[in-house]
Amino acid sequence: MRGTRACPAARGARALPGFRGWGAYAPSRLAVGALADRIFRSGNSDESSLVRAASQLDSAQACHYVVAMAGPEKLRLFVAVFPPPEVAMRLAGAGQIVARELRPGLANWTSAEQIHMTLKFLGAVERTEQGRVERALEEVAARAQPFPIQARALGCFPNEARPRVIWAGMAGVLGILEQAKNALDSRLAGVVSVEDERPLRPHLTIGRFKDWRATDREPLALAMSRWADTEFGTWTVDRLDLVQSALGPAGSTYAVLKSCIFGA
User: What single string gives the DSSP state of each residue in 226-262?
Assistant: First the structure.
C-alpha cells in the first residue's frame, strides 16, 4: 500500500485553501493514499464514483479531500456568510432544544460549524471557471463595507403548517447583502448552473424536516412560540466566503475555498 506522499489526492489536500494538516484525521492517511491511487489507476474520477469510493473512509473530512482533489470536472459551490462561533453554537443549541420537543427523527439538525447564510447558490461549476468566480467575488467584496447584523428568532419555510426548513432570522443592514447578490448575478451570468432571480431572504438554516406529519403541527407551533423574540447575537459581517460542498455518506462537508474581505 502506498503512503500519502505518492498520492495525488493527498498532495492536493495540502494545497487546498484552508487545509491545516491532517491532525485528527491522521489514522486515515494510508486509506486516503490507497483509495486515491486506486481511483487514479482506474481512470474513473467522476464525482459519483468518488463519493461511493470515499464511503470506505472513516473520516468525513478525509472523504471531502478525496472528492475535492481527485479530479471531478465540476465543483458544487455557493457563496456564504458564516456567523462567529459563539453565535453558531447558540443557534445549534437552540436546534437541539427544539429537537427534544418534537418527534424523534422529524428533522436533520445543522451542526454549529455548518450554520451559514447562503448569499448565492452557484450549483455545479466547471473547475476551469473557479478563477473567474473568485475574481467576481473579490470585485463584489471590494465594493462593500463591513456592517452589523443580528441573528434573532426562529421560524419555518414555507410555513409551520407544512414546513421544510427551520431557520433563524437575520436583522440589520440587509440591503448590502441584496446588492452583493445582484452584483454576483450580473458578473456570473453564463458561468453558474443555477440562475436564481428570487429576492434574497437572509436566514440561517438550523434544521431540515424529513418526515412531516399533521400531528407534528401543534408541538412545532408551541416550540416556535418560545423562540419568537430570542436574540442569538450580533456581529460584524466583513467578508464573503466561496464554499465547496461535497456530498458524502455522512452528508455534506464544506470547505472554504476563498474568503474575500470587504473593502480590500
Answer: TTTT-EEEEEEE-EEEEEEEEEETTEEEEEEEEEEET
